[in-house]
Amino acid sequence: MKYAFSALLALACASQTFGQRFQTAPIRKHIEFLASDDLEGRGTASLGEVRAANYIASAFRQIGLKPAGTKGYFQPFGVSVGIDGEAHDLTGRNVVGFLDNGAPKTIVIGAHYDHLGKGFQGSSLSPDSKNKIHNGADDNASGTAGVLELARYFAGNNVKEKHNYLFITFSGEELGLLGSKHYVEKPTLPLNTFSAMINMDMIGRLDAQKGIIVSGWGTSKVWGKLIPELAKQQKLKYTVDSSGVGASDHTSFYLKNIPVVQFFTGGHGDYHKISDDSEKINYEGEASILMLISELLDGLDKETTEPEFLTAGNPHSATTTSNFKVTLGVMPDYSYTGKGLKIDGVSKARPAEKAGILAGDVITKLGGEPIGTIYDYMEILGKHEKGQTVEAVLQRGSETKTVKVTF
Q1: How many CB atoms sit inside 10 A of residue 143's CB?
Q2: How far is CA 330 from the centre of its chain?
Q3: Is the pTM of this model over 0.90?
Q4: Which of 69, 97, 134, 403 could form a disulfide with 60 if both were Cys (CB 3.0 to 4.6 A apart)?
């Protein structure tokens, strides 16, 4: 593995001489390895997770990052995993590398690398998913590849920036942001030295018409100052979500009063299914997103002051984003900015499909409670148990419909 990555690094460095920061070939290599059947879906604390962690650590070592975990590049943490109804105490691990520019402030660049394994962990949306490999190419081999390629670029660009960079890949995200929560509670660098955190979760399915979703917009004015022009340069459409709280690892840093921003290319029909495979990744699209993020980091480095943290207006707690007892079996349209929950995809044999809910529907009320945003939807889900039947009010074109949903 070490020598294979050395060759990959040489290829990437050679391509950089032609003035292009990010090439599709190394991105593809990372994703194809991480999302291969050999890694069996990278379930937290599984052998596949360990092999993925070793690959990432080897990459950090070859790039020249300093180990910044508690055991070399690794930061192990305990996790209780429920398997077939029984709880087991296991060990997951974050992988942490540090690009030390001798600066007083550090920017965190992160992504989770775990996925659903063979369907015994997390929330698979594939019917009869037990013992089937969930490769998680978009979720989140794509973000992990982004961390590796950004690390490779900034370590080899012959520039000593005014910030250090801490590159972290988290495990346990699918089980409730466990790895990132552990990191911010037991950081390997002081939290008060962190200027900002940039997160990448599912950046591999860029649709030029829908563009990207940028979350955390309201956690600092700097995002609104820098990103619009950079997106215009990359010809990337974007939708913003002001909240610093969401179903990914930037939430853990936001709750420690650190400005955050997350990049996401949106939902699709393969989300949390065994069909999320590497051949479906838009590699050119991911390269353009990494270019935008690298330019954003360049822009942060040129600012005369550090990003000011702002409390983004979201009254909902982080606990509403994970560990639901029930699910509708839908993929929300995260680019939708209207009232309600717009449905981008519906999983077969799940409550939404059985109730007759279709892609394109906008659910405006569930269980008698109005849905204004996706956070309302998450909070409502958390109040229900399996077996309960509730009414869902939805808008389908100009028609308002009421259906019964059994969880």
Answers
A1: 30
A2: 18
A3: no
A4: 97
